[in-house]
From TrEMBL:
GO MF annotation list: L-cystine transmembrane transporter activity
Subcellular location: Endomembrane system
Feature: compositional bias, Polar residues: 1-11
Residue ranges that the Swiss-Prot or TrEMBL entry lists as coiled coil: none
Pfam assignment, any one: PQ-loop
Protein name as it appears in the record: Cystinosin
Length: 325
């Protein structure tokens, strides 16, 4: 009898041990032995890293081929350079804090690699802007004012953190309620990247509207920007589902907002390229268009080399046409 009672108790204990804890990650085996949630998350991380990193190479190649940056907004470049500088520091710092204090990995290795790589690519584009033909383009005073003010705010917050009046990052003072209301220097870098993402494409869209053309901007840039945004958001969502922790999403809110803004502006530029200012099928691709001077006020003089229709002689087809786009 006692043995039977012990067996019953053991059975009950076994059932209690085998019952899953509420904090246990979601069962990813439902997707098969290979397509688990962590694997899908890693695939999304690689995909968004590829899209958001490779998106700068078409612009670098187009500038190199044309030996000119006409049609590419210099304001967009300065916004990108400033944003990636702050975002690289933000990701590197938070990744280090997460590792030291064993916190949830909201910022992943993909995020660090992406931000550092983006910074390097924009430095290379800056060298192209310095050496290649700019066609009279200049960075607007409003862009300079924005960047200078952002730097001043960061230096002020850093000074307060150096005096130990505020923490360097909220992750370092999770139990300090007195400093929870302050925006820290590291938080500001993530926030300013989001703000820059929401405004950086505006000068490019205005330039395209004034010129009635997207020539000079590699159209692969907004395409890959949209793809990177989709994969980036999907990775955070998969991680939150697997760990049953919404902090995975809210803890890296700048990444989600950046993806949303990138998608919206990317769609706007694609609409300009394929609908509003769609090139006729008789013209060469954008990379073959020779841009004239651009003063930012009127339309540039564009020389387009017409392809030869079947009913026109070869001699006539090689003529240069002045076609205002």
């Amino acid at each position: 009898m006692s043995s039977s009672g012990n067996d019953t108790t053991a059975t009950v204990d076994d059932k209690m041990v085998e019952s899953p804890s509420p904090s246990t990650p979601a069962d990813s085996s439902l997707l098969g032995p290979w397509l688990t949630l962590p694997v899908l998350s890693q695939c999304c991380g690689v995909a968004y890293l590829f899209c958001w990193s490779a998106m700068y190479y078409p612009q670098l190649y187009l500038n190199f081929k044309r030996k000119s940056v006409q049609g590419f907004s210099l304001d967009l470049w300065l916004y990108n350079l400033s944003g990636f500088l702050g975002y690289a520091v933000y990701n590197c710092f938070r990744a280090h804090v997460q590792k030291v204090f064993d916190l949830p990995r909201a910022v992943k290795t993909h995020d660090v690699v992406f931000s550092v790589h983006g910074l390097i690519c924009n430095i290379l584009i800056g060298l192209q802007i310095y050496y290649y033909e700019r066609g009279g383009q200049k960075i607007s005073k409003w862009t300079w004012i924005f960047v200078v003010c952002a730097c001043a705010v960061f230096l002020y917050l850093s000074f307060l953190a150096w005096l130990r009046l505020i923490p360097w990052d909220a992750l370092l003072s999770a139990n300090d309620e007195s400093s929870a209301a302050f925006i820290t220097p590291i938080q500001f870098l993530g926030t300013i990247k989001v703000i820059i993402t929401f405004v950086k494409y505006i000068p490019q869209i205005i330039m395209n509207h004034r010129r009635k053309s997207t020539a000079g901007l590699a159209i692969q840039v907004p395409m890959m920007d949209i793809g990177g945004a989709l994969f980036s958001g999907l990775q955070n969502i998969l991680d939150a589902v697997y760990h049953n922790d919404i902090h995975i999403v809210t803890g890296n809110l700048p990444k989600m907002l950046i993806g949303t803004a990138s998608s919206l502006y990317g769609l706007a530029i694609l609409f300009q390229h394929f609908v509003l200012y769609r090139a006729s099928s008789r013209y060469e691709p954008v990379s073959e268009v020779e841009l004239g001077s651009l003063d930012g006020k009127g339309r540039p003089a564009v020389k387009v080399y017409q392809q030869a229709p079947m009913h026109i002689s070869r001699r006539a087809s090689n003529s240069v046409l002045d076609d205002p786009i």
